[in-house]
Each structure stands twice: as structure tokens, then as C-alpha cells.
Specification:
heterodimer, A: 100 residues, mainly alpha, Helix Hairpins, 3 helices, B: 498 residues, two-stranded antiparallel ribbon, 2 strands
């Protein structure tokens, strides 16, 4: 049986890659994709813990996270489209009309 | 009145009764606007549903109802009082939205539906006894408010604010979920009371530390505590003013309730265990509170846009309420709940005045408010009351609630001397700083001369909502017992989870 630490390390690496993407990517679509990576890292954690603890609540949580993530992306893409119509770009460096 | 009136109707679902009424409204609003195309009808229906929900909630609260549903929702004195707070917010905002010129006219039914959905999410958080419900409730409120922010007419700033909000909000969601997953792995349960029980035997492991850091950071974004505050001024400035008011007084309270429900319960339960780092966590929260109020107040001084100034002042107010998390006593929680209520009326009222003035063509800059006392005496006086209440001038509500909150920090956990005297001192110093930038607005309104002297007539719904806030700010200031009694019950109910 594979030890639990291996799965946690996988999830932690995925989470770190997602966090790096959120902070460095200029295109907002890529930022949203990076957020999905972070959410899926949490999902791996939930499934692993659920399996090792023999408790179903973790898997219920995964279903909740998946549906919430879907809603968030749907709303996020709509908001990006709205911003694209006005600014003609999806880059975060263009969002500078309000500062401090 | 007896709570059996409601329990006879709703049966096992009584703990969710106020939410069920609101959810019916959420589903009905778009259909109603689609068939009637009449904004007055939709507004009246929204207010009716929220008012019925508030009456149901009041009957349950005054009847002392206590019950749970599947161990996921629990209605007690704490959740009842917090649900009442969110209903007041929804009523105030729903009243003014139709007459605001900033809100989009195209999808009015959807706007009202989303406003109610966000309120339902906050009410879920208030009644939740399980991390799953807290997570879903916070997301329901957040995703609804992303859309509310973008629904503004003719302003590119709203699109920009919505993009910033959705990215920061998504990031904070991811942080929170990762923290919850680690916490679930450490304690093996998601029920709040069961987590508090597990704290009695729980050591402070590295996995638990990761869970705490990511969860505090994630929910710190929701309440805009420093250093997670940068989105708040942009979003409040970009959104239409009724939505800014809704976020400042509603969404922020939801985040604070999460802090109370998860962290306060958990760490108070952990105080009996010597290996458990409750004292260190208290210091962490004290530092977050101190930085949040100081940065909020100092940056607010430099603002020229009144909505940004109020946004930074909101950040500072959240810092004051975070004192509860440092002191962790029942008396402090009473003060925190009291300040949450007074903050609804004074900050909500100030934002509503800004929104009312935008409707009649007065801008968002503080210099646009010159000579307002001559043009609109009632609005200028109400603004004066709200700003002085925010700064904590007696006999207004802000003074009384700050008095309870800060005295809790000085009194500490039952002893006459407390380690948190410095925090109370810093908070009082901050109130003095805040008076400077509030007084700037008052000076512009009362002393400086404006270019025009013609009278202003703002829409009637705005006047009604502002008048309600004025009355509440004065009544809660001179008669604090009205809220202190229920707040004490609520704090006792939350501490009984431990």
C-alpha cells in the first residue's frame, strides 16, 4: 500500500504550482486555470484522507468542491468576457484604472 | 410569541425556516420580472419575502427556539441574531436598488434574485454547524456577489472590479478548501462541535499548522484583513454603491461569523491542553487585528474618493472586531456582535448617502461634497451622524459598541488586568486617527463653500433607508440594552458549542 505522505506531497506540489500560476500569469484565463489546479489539490487531499480514515464525509466534500468550482469558473469566464468587451484584452496588466 | 407557530408549519425543517422562505423568493424573482417587466412589483415582492423571512426568524428567536437539522444546521440564539442582521441588510439594500441610477436596468429580476441568494448564503453560514455548510454558504454568497459587482451601468471600472474580485475570491476559496482538507485529515470530522472535542486531545502538528495558516489566510481575504485587503477598495469603488454597501456590511460580517464559528470555538476548546498553541494563536490574531486597524485608518487618510475612504474605514472596523479573536472571552464576543450591528447602520447609512447623491449627479470625490449642508440639510446631518458614530463620538451607537468591545480587551478573560491592554490602547488611538479623515468630509459639507447652492431632492426609498439608519444609530447609542441582552444570549449559545 502506498503511504499517505506520497499523496499529500502530490497534492502539495499541485497546490504550489497553482499558487505560482496565480501569482505570475498575466492572462486572466490562465489565472482561473491555476485556481482550478489549487482546488483539485484540495480534492486529492479529501479523497486520500477519506480513504485512509474510512469516512465518507471527505468524498461528499469533494462533490461540493467540484460543483462550486464549476459555478465559479462559469461566472468567472462570463465576467472576463464582459471585461474583454470593454478593454479588448484579458491581461491583468490592463486592469490598472484603480490603485491604492 | 410562541415558536410553535412556526414549528407546526415547517416541522423538521424549522431550523432552516427563514432560509426556505428566502429561497422561494430567489426562485420566483426572475420569473416575476420576466412576466411583469415591472421593477416596482419585483422590489415589492423581494421586500415582502425578506420581511416574511424576518418575521419567521423573529418568532423563532423571541420564542427561544433551539433545534437542528441533520447535524448540519442548528438554530440557536447566535444564528437567530445573525440571520436578523443579514435580513436587515437585505431589506435596506433591496429598498433602494430600484431607484439607484447606477444599477443595470436590463436584468433587474436577476439582480434581486442574486441579492437574495447572497443573503441566503450568509444565513447558511450563520446557522451552520458543519464545515461543508460553511463552505457552501460562503461560496453561495461570494459567487452571487461577483455577479452583483459586475451589474453596473456605463462604467468600465465595474468590469475591472469584478475581474479582480473573482480572481482574489477564487484564490481565497482554493486556500480555504486546502486548509479544510488538511484539518479534516488531522481530526477526521467536519462537524464544528466534534472538531472542538477533538481539540482536547490534539497536539499542534505541522499538518494542523498548515491547515490553520491556509484557512486564516483564505477567510482573511473574505473579511479583508491586512495583508489580504487589497481587493476591497477596488471592488467597493468599482461596484454600484448599493452593492458596495451590501459587501461592506453583509459579506464582511459573514467572514467574521466564520472566524467566530471555526477559530474561536476551536481555540477556546483547546485552552485546556498545554501542548495546544492557543496563546500563540491569540497573539497571531492580536497582530492581525492591530495591523488591520492601523493600515486601514492610515491609508484612509490619503483617499480623495469617498467610496475608497469608506472601504478603508471598513477594513479598520473589521480590525476592531478582530479584537474578539485575540481576547477570546464571552464578554468580548458580546462587544463584537454589538459592533457588527452598529456597523451595519453607520457604514450602511454612509454608503447609502453616497449612493443617493450619485443618483442626483454629485460625484464620488470628497471635494464634490462642498457646501452640501446648504443643499441637502438632512443628508448632510445624517452623514455627520454616521461618520461621528464610526469614529466613536458619544452618544452615538459607534461609541457604545466600541466601549463594550475595548473594555472587554482591557478587562481580559475574567481578571482585572489583561495582556490585551495595549490592543485596546492601539484601537483607541486608531479611533482618534479615523476622526481626522471623517472630519475632512464634515468640513467639506459644513464649512467650505460649494459652487452651486440649489436644493437637492434624492429618491424617496433612499430617504426612508437613511432615516431608518439614523434612528438605529441614535437608539442603539442611548439604549444599548436593546441589543446587549440578545447579544449576551448569542455569545452564550456560541460558547456552549465548546
Amino acid at each position: 500500500m502506498i503511504p499517505v505522505e506520497y499523496f499529500l506531497a502530490l497534492a502539495a506540489i499541485l497546490f504550489a504550482i497553482g499558487a505560482y500560476g496565480v501569482m505570475t500569469k498575466v492572462n486572466t484565463i490562465l489565472v482561473l486555470m491555476s485556481i482550478e489546479l489549487m482546488l483539485n489539490a484540495a480534492n486529492i487531499n479529501f479523497v486520500v484522507f477519506s480513504g485512509f480514515l474510512g469516512d465518507a464525509m471527505g468524498q461528499v466534500f469533494v462533490l461540493m468542491v467540484i460543483s462550486v468550482a464549476a459555478a465559479e469558473v462559469a461566472v468567472g469566464i462570463a465576467i472576463l468576457l464582459n471585461a474583454y468587451k470593454i478593454k479588448k484584452t484579458t491581461e491583468v496588466t490592463a486592469l490598472t484604472s484603480m490603485r491604492w | 410569541m410562541d415558536a410553535s407557530v412556526i414549528t407546526n408549519i415547517f416541522g423538521d425543517f424549522s431550523a432552516m425556516a427563514p432560509m426556505i422562505v428566502m429561497i422561494l423568493g430567489v426562485l420566483l424573482m426572475p420569473a416575476l420580472y420576466f412576466t411583469t417587466k415591472n421593477r416596482v412589483v419585483v422590489t415589492a415582492a423581494m421586500l415582502a419575502f425578506t420581511a416574511v423571512s424576518a418575521i419567521v426568524n423573529l418568532i423563532l428567536l423571541l420564542g427561544g427556539y433551539n433545534g437542528d437539522y441533520l447535524g448540519l444546521f442548528e438554530y440557536d440564539a447566535f444564528s437567530g441574531l445573525m440571520i436578523l442582521l443579514f435580513q436587515i441588510v437585505a431589506l435596506l439594500i433591496g429598498l433602494v436598488t430600484a431607484s439607484s441610477t447606477e444599477v443595470t436596468r436590463l436584468h433587474y429580476g436577476a439582480f434581486m434574485s442574486l441579492l437574495m441568494a447572497a443573503t441566503v448564503g450568509m444565513m447558511f453560514v450563520a446557522t451552520a454547524t458543519d464545515l461543508v455548510v460553511i463552505f457552501v454558504g460562503v461560496e453561495l454568497a461570494s459567487i452571487s456577489s461577483y455577479i452583483l459587482v459586475s451589474m453596473k451601468r456605463n462604467d468600465p471600472r465595474a468590469a475591472e472590479a469584478a475581474v479582480k474580485y473573482v480572481i482574489i475570491g477564487g484564490m481565497s476559496t482554493a486556500l480555504t478548501v486546502y486548509g479544510i482538507s488538511m484539518l479534516y485529515g488531522v481530526v477526521g470530522v467536519t462537524n464544528l462541535a466534534a472538531i472542538a472535542d477533538a481539540m482536547q486531545t490534539q497536539g499542534f502538528t505541522w499538518a494542523f499548522a498548515i491547515a490553520m495558516i491556509t484557512m486564516i489566510a483564505g477567510y482573511g481575504f473574505k473579511i479583508a484583513s491586512v495583508p489580504f485587503h487589497m481587493w476591497a477598495p477596488d471592488v467597493y469603488e468599482g461596484a454600484s454603491t448599493p452593492v458596495s454597501a451590501f459587501l461592506a456590511v453583509g459579506s464582511k460580517k459573514m467572514g467574521l461569523i466564520v472566524f467566530f464559528k471555526i477559530f474561536l470555538v476551536m481555540f477556546v476548546a483547546g485552552t485546556t491542553v498545554s501542548t495546544f498553541a492557543t496563546a500563540e494563536m491569540q497573539y497571531l490574531f492580536a497582530i492581525i487585528a492591530a495591523i488591520t486597524m492601523t493600515v486601514g485608518n492610515i491609508v484612509a487618510i490619503a483617499q480623495t474618493n469617498i467610496k475608497r475612504m469608506l472601504a478603508y474605514s471598513s477594513i479598520a472596523q473589521a480590525g476592531y472586531i478582530l479584537i474578539v479573536m485575540a481576547v477570546m472571552s464571552e464578554y468580548a464576543l458580546v462587544g463584537g456582535i454589538f459592533h457588527m450591528f452598529t456597523h451595519v447602520f453607520m457604514k450602511g447609512g454612509a454608503f447609502l448617502i453616497v449612493g443617493a447623491l450619485i443618483c442626483v449627479g454629485i460625484g464620488e470625490r470628497i471635494s464634490d461634497y462642498r457646501g452640501l449642508a446648504k443643499r441637502a440639510p438632512f443628508l448632510a446631518f445624517a452623514m455627520l451622524l454616521f461618520l461621528f458614530s464610526l469614529a466613536g463620538i458619544p452618544p452615538l451607537a459607534g461609541f457604545t459598541s466600541k466601549f463594550v468591545l475595548f473594555s472587554a480587551a482591557i478587562y481580559g478573560d475574567g481578571g482585572a488586568t489583561s495582556q490585551w491592554v495595549w490592543l485596546a490602547f492601539l484601537a483607541i488611538l486608531n479611533s482618534a486617527i479615523s476622526l481626522y479623515y471623517y472630519a475632512r468630509v464634515v468640513k467639506a459639507m459644513y464649512i467650505e463653500k460649494g459652487e452651486s447652492a440649489e436644493r437637492i431632492a434624492v429618491p424617496l426609498p433612499f430617504l426612508i433607508a437613511i432615516a431608518i439608519c439614523v434612528v438605529a444609530v441614535i437608539v442603539l447609542g442611548v439604549y444599548p440594552q436593546a441589543i446587549l441582552g440578545p447579544a449576551a444570549d448569542a455569545a452564550a449559545a456560541l460558547f456552549s458549542l465548546v
